[in-house]
Amino acid sequence: MTISKAWTGNGRTYLSVRPARKEVNSRFDTWEITPGTGPFTTVPMTDNGQVRLAVPVREEVAGTSRAELVAYSPAQLVTLIGRLDPTLSGGIGYNLVFDGTGRVTGLTSLYRP
To answer: How far, in whole angstroms, is CA 44 from its chain's centroid?
Structure first.
């Protein structure tokens, strides 16, 4: 998935998402993301949704590699996605896990240098 924006409303975090294709870039041990086309869909996160981020979504964290996943809150995710350069954000991929009602219970960013 790719995410165009994230926001909080009525005490819940929402994401505007669209399917994307991911492929391993074995030359650099990273992911190649091919964004999908068409409209974005709004999906809510659960109150206890797990967020794990790598660079470039998160900032550098001392003692961690750029590809290492670091836990963040959904509120922090909103701030970090809001700070991304729009020309960069379309190529960042995310794995999302949904519950039976279509809410996001887990979100992991895919490492991209």
So the answer is: 13
Q: Which residues pair with 34 in a beta bridge?
A: 21
Q: What are the tokens at 45?
A: 């996160």
Instruction: Map 26-76 to HEC letters.
Output: CCCCEEEEEECCCCCEEEEEEEEEEEEECCCCCCCCCCCCCCCCEEECHHH
Compute the radius of gyration of the chain from its Cα atoms.
13
- Helix ranges (H only) for 1-113 are 74-83, 86-89
**Residues pairing with 1 in the sheet:** none
CA distances from 67 to 3, 61, 88, 98, 102 (A): 19, 11, 17, 23, 28
- Pair of tokens at residue 110: 């895919």
- Could you give the C-alpha distances from 34 to 5, 29, 88, in angstroms and in order? 18, 16, 13
Dump pLDDT digits (tens) for 41-82: 999 999 899 999 999 999 999 999 999 999 999 999 999 999
CA 41 – CA 19 distance, rounded (Å):
9
pTM of the model: 0.89
